Every structure is written in C-alpha cells, then in structure tokens.
C-alpha cells in the first residue's frame, strides 16, 4: 500500500457516485474506506465520530473474515452482511485495497441495496478503469 | 499509509502502539485521551478486552492541528501484545505510518520485549517494510516502579537490547502516571508527518509547506 493522494476532482466524482447510490437504494449512509481503516469518502447521515469507528472496525473485521476464509481454502468472502432489528450493514470489496460499507434501515430492503451497490461498484470500477490507485494518484 | 486529501486539505495517518502483553499500550492511549481529550475526534474505542488484556485492538482518532494548510488527523491503535494474537497484530499493523514500541521495564519481561520487537520486525517485513523504514519511537514504560521492590532494568540496558544501534528516539515513561506519554506521542506524530511529507515530495513532487 502506498500513500493515497486525492484530488478535489477525484473526491467530487467519488462523492457523486456514492450520493447517487444512496438516493437510488434508500440506504442512509455509505462509506468508501481503505483496508487499513482510513476513510476515503463518506456520504450520509451517520454521525462523524461513529463513522471513524465504523471504518476502523470494518477494516479489522474484514481482515479477520478474510483470514477465516483462508482457513477454508477460500481466497476471501467477497460480500458481508450484518442484519440488526433496525440497522443493517452491507460490505463489499472495491478493487484490491478498498471497501465499501452501506448502512440502511428498514425503509428499504437488502435486494434493492444489493442491486444499487452492484451498480455503484460497477460505476466506480469502470471509472477507475484498471487500477484504482493509478486513477487516484493521477 | 497516509491519505492526503486536496479537497479538505487533510492528511490522515495511522500510528500503532506495539509491544509485549501488559507492557502499557492501552494505558498510553487512556492517558493520551485524558490529557489531550480536547483534541480527540471521538471516544477511545476498546474492542474486546478481558480484564486489562486487549483481545482485538484499541482505537483513538485525534486532531493534531495544522501544518501549512493541511490539517493533520491521526488514528491511534494498539495491538494485543499476547503472543498468540499475531494474526490480529498483522491486521492492525496494515498500512501503518508510525510506531511506538512500548517496552516493559520489568526485569522479568526482558525476553518478552525482545520477542515482541522481533515479531514487529517480522510483521513489518511481510509488508515490505522494516524497523528502520518506518518512524519508530521507543518508550521504556513503568519507570514509576524504579526504586520499588520489583526489579527494573536500567534504561541503558534497555537501549542496548532494544534500540541496538541507537537509531530511534526513546523516552522513559510511566503510562500509569502519565509521565513521558505526551513526549512519546508528540515525537512519533512529528516523525510520522515529516516522513509522509518527505515521501510525498520525493514520490509525487508535492510539497506540503510550499505552493
Ligand atoms: N506501575 C505501572 N503499571 C503500569 C504502567 N503502565 C501500565 N501499567 C499496568 O500494567 C497493566 C497492563 O497495562 P495495559 O496498558 O493494559 O497493557 P497492554 O500493553 O495494553 O497489554 P495487552 O493489551 O495485553 O497487550 C495494567 O494493570 C496497567 O495498569 C506504568 O507505567 N506503571
Ligand atoms: Mg492493551
């Protein structure tokens, strides 16, 4: 992992993809983080303080889950989902080094969120062409 | 590794407190949170502890003020020191920008210190780094016990066994009393930011202070 330099244009583009995803999916918060637990971009209504903790915990949780996957001879589990009474979390890989976290409540449902996350990911991934980092660092 | 945003003019770095089990890593973070609470961006998050043993990690996000136009934001982590939690240590160490090695001054922990430092070196090597390529500060903790009944190693001896080439800054401390905690923290923050700036200038031609 190298340092990540984010230009204003890059962040604006990421934000607009995330904001669109939120609108279409009915989710209330979405975060793009790196696997070291640092926030790249965040859209939504979650409180800033909690967002930092969520990023740190998710990165560690993801790492732990990947280690578990390897015990079973799996490269990794590409998608994680946590369901609560009110709040639900959906995690997915973005390229090799990043993760997307989507937080939603019962105003929407997993099927729709999953679909929109897929679309958002596809958008981010094509946007970043072959390599997210190259694009970020351009 | 650091994240530098030119939209909000922020630099985010990750600093990890490493060292043998029961050495005082968590106590350092508690002490920082107490002394510099106003600079904290959130609560100290201790995930999964059993008594005073960290099972996963502690996390404390801090604001350090500005350098030039950039706001410096630091995420502090501790690892679990117990030998068997190496998988977790590797996770926490991922993308680290600066390290504080909290060594235990108790004579009885001499080998635990050495083993933990070796383990740090191994884990950094896996990331393609090493003890001399990441900013590193030593803290010789529990100095408050000097002169008490328990046997404490002299600082010089700790320097000799851990900071073998004397390359890294080191501080005596008592995380419990709060002594040396701030000095250690300030030093590692400074070194980390300097290191990130140097890297940015060298690799990307970006100067944090100029233009
Ligand atoms: N006397 C004295 N005791 C200390 C000091 N720092 C920590 N301790 C005590 O040592 C014990 C372990 O401290 P922690 O901060 O939990 O140690 P740790 O390095 O986080 O340990 P792990 O989480 O197992 O890796 C606690 O009972 C602390 O109160 C110190 O400076 N002096
Ligand atoms: Mg601890």
Topology:
The complex is a heterodimer of chains A (138) and B (211).
Chain A: E1 4-6, H1 8-25, E2 29-34, E3 39-44, H2 48-71, E4 79-83, E5 88-94, E6 98-104, H3 110-127, H4 132-137
Antiparallel strand pairs in A: 2-3, 2-6, 4-5, 5-6
Helix pairs in contact in A: 1-3
Chain B: E1 3-5, E2 10-18, H1 25-35, E3 45-50, E4 53-67, E5 70-78, H2 86-93, E6 98-104, H3 110-126, E7 136-141, H4 155-161, E8 170-172, H5 181-204
Parallel strand pairs in B: 2-5, 2-6, 6-7, 7-8
Antiparallel strand pairs in B: 1-2, 3-4, 4-5
Bound molecules: guanosine-5'-triphosphate and magnesium ion (MG).
Guanosine-5'-triphosphate binds at residues 19, 21-27, 52-54, 78, 80-82, 141-142, 144-145, 174-176 of chain B.
What does this structure look like?
The complex is a heterodimer of chains A (138) and B (211). Chain A has 138 residues and is α+β, with helices and mostly antiparallel strands. Chain A has one domain: Beta-Lactamase (2-Layer Sandwich), CATH 3.30.450. Chain A has helices at 8-25, 48-71, 110-127, 132-137, and strands at residues 4-6, 29-34, 39-44, 79-83, 88-94, 98-104. Chain A has a 5-stranded antiparallel sheet, with helices on both faces. In chain A, strand 4 (79-83) and strand 5 (88-94) form a beta hairpin. In chain A, helix 1 packs antiparallel against helix 3. Chain A is globular. The mean pLDDT of chain A is 87. Chain B is of the alpha/beta class. Chain B has one domain: Rossmann fold (3-Layer(aba) Sandwich). Helix content of chain B is 32%, strand content 27%. Chain B has helices at residues 25-35, 86-93, 110-126, 155-161, 181-204; strands at 3-5, 10-18, 45-50, 53-67, 70-78, 98-104, 136-141, 170-172. In chain B, strands 1, 2, 3, 4, 5, 6, 7 and 8 form an 8-stranded mixed sheet that branches. Chain B is globular and about 55 Å long. Chain B starts with a strand and ends in a 7-residue tail after the last helix. The mean pLDDT of chain B is 93. The chains are: A alpha+beta (138), B alpha/beta (211). Chain A binds chain B through residues 1-8, 11-12, 34-40, 48-50, 52-53, 56-57, 59-60, 63-64, 67, 137, and chain B through 1-7, 12, 14, 41-43, 45, 47, 56-57, 59, 61, 75, 77, 87-88, 90-92, 94-96, 127, 196, 199-200, 203-204, 206. Bound molecules: guanosine-5'-triphosphate (GTP) and magnesium ion. Residues 25-26, 54, 78 of chain B line the site of magnesium ion.
């Amino acid at each position: 992992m190298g340092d990540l330099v984010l230009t204003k244009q890059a962040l604006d583009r990421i934000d607009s993809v995330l904001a669109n995803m939120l609108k279409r999916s009915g989710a209330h918060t979405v975060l793009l983080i790196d696997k070291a637990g640092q926030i790249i971009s965040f859209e939504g209504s979650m409180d800033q303080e909690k967002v930092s903790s969520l990023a740190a915990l998710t990165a560690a949780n993801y790492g732990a889950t990947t280690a578990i996957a390897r015990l079973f001879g799996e490269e990794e589990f590409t998608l994680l989902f946590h369901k609560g009474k009110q709040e639900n979390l959906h995690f997915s890989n973005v390229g090799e080094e990043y993760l997307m976290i989507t937080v939603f409540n019962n105003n929407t449902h997993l099927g729709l969120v999953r679909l929109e996350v897929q679309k958002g990911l596809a958008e981010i991934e094509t946007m970043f062409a072959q390599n997210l980092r190259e694009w970020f660092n351009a | 590794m650091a994240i530098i945003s030119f939209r909000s003019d922020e630099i985010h770095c990750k600093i990890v407190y490493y060292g043998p089990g029961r050495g005082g890593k968590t106590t350092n973070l508690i002490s920082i949170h107490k002394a510099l609470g106003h600079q904290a961006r959130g609560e100290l998050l201790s995930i999964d502890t059993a008594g005073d043993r960290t099972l996963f990690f502690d996390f404390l996000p801090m604001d350090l003020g500005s350098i030039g136009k950039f706001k410096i934001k630091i995420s502090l982590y501790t690892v679990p020191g117990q030998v068997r939690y190496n998988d977790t240590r590797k996770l926490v160490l991922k993308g680290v920008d600066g390290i504080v090695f909290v060594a235990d001054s108790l004579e009885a922990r001499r080998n635990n210190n050495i083993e933990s430092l070796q383990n740090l070196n191994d884990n950094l090597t896996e990331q393609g780094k090493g003890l001399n390529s990441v900013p590193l500060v030593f803290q010789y903790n529990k100095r408050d016990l000097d002169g008490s009944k328990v046997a404490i190693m002299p600082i010089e001896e700790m320097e000799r066994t851990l900071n073998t080439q004397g390359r890294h800054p080191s501080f005596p401390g008592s995380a419990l009393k709060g002594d040396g905690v701030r000095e250690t923290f300030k030093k590692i923050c400074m070194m980390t930011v300097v290191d990130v700036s140097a890297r940015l200038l060298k690799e990307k031609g970006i100067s944090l202070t100029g233009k």
